[in-house]
Design goal:
about 210 residues, Four Helix Bundle (Hemerythrin (Met), subunit A)
């Protein structure tokens, strides 16, 4: 004689079936997302190139107002964070989960360090009234006005991507701790690494375009 418990057993078993692991689909989805990001920043870089052609001297004057040391420090910070991210992925693939987590912590520290340096740099610009719409900047040449408009827009958008990256890395750490990301099922961390490397690559272009013109 069947019971209610027996009737429910197949449904219960079905509910606990493992979620299909589609590594290929996840990678394709991530590459599509990265492609849209490249298009987005690519449009901004094209706009920069057009204005640079028109206001070359003004861009040089604006670049002279930037702190190359801080920009260079942030470049080193992000390059190092890309290294720790890559090493974290390699550690996970080897099955060394504790080391992978530690390297993700290091990546997070570098990301926060980048934002701290950028906040000091932006703070100095606002302290000297160098920001879009300020009376001081409006007295400058049109080239300098356009330069700082692009500077704050593009570095600000990049900083937002860094912040998003911080949340995604924290999410990856939690998934690893929960066992959802393992040495055998590591595509999620791979995708996080791809995103982080793109964030670093964008900065590699931003640094010379804004800081090395003078």
């Amino acid at each position: 004689m069947s019971t209610a418990h027996d009737a429910a057993a197949p449904a219960e078993s079905h509910d606990h079936e493992a979620v299909p692991y589609d590594a290929t689909g996840s990678r394709i989805g991530m590459w599509i997302f990265l492609f849209t990001e490249v298009l987005f920043f690519g449009g901004l870089f094209i706009a920069y190139a057009v204005y640079l052609t028109e206001y070359g001297r003004g861009f040089q004057l604006g670049s002279a107002e930037l702190d190359i040391a801080m920009g260079g420090l942030n470049t080193v910070i992000l390059l190092t964070s890309s290294l720790t991210m890559a090493l974290s992925i390699a550690a996970l693939q080897r099955g060394d989960i504790p080391l992978s987590q530690k390297l993700l912590n290091a990546t997070l520290l570098f990301a926060f360090a980048f934002l701290v340096v950028k906040s000091f740099e932006w703070g100095a610009k606002f302290e000297h009234h160098i920001y879009p719409g300020s009376a001081y900047l409006l007295d400058k040449t049109m080239g300098e006005v356009v330069f700082f408009g692009l500077y704050f827009s593009m570095t600000g958008l990049h900083a937002l991507h860094v912040i998003l990256g911080i949340f995604v890395i924290i999410w990856a750490k939690r998934r690893i701790a929960a066992g959802a990301v393992t040495p055998e099922r590591n595509v999620f961390l791979d995708n996080v690494g791809l995103y982080w490397h793109l964030v670093d690559l964008v900065w590699i272009f931003l640094f010379p375009l804004f800081y090395l013109l003078s």
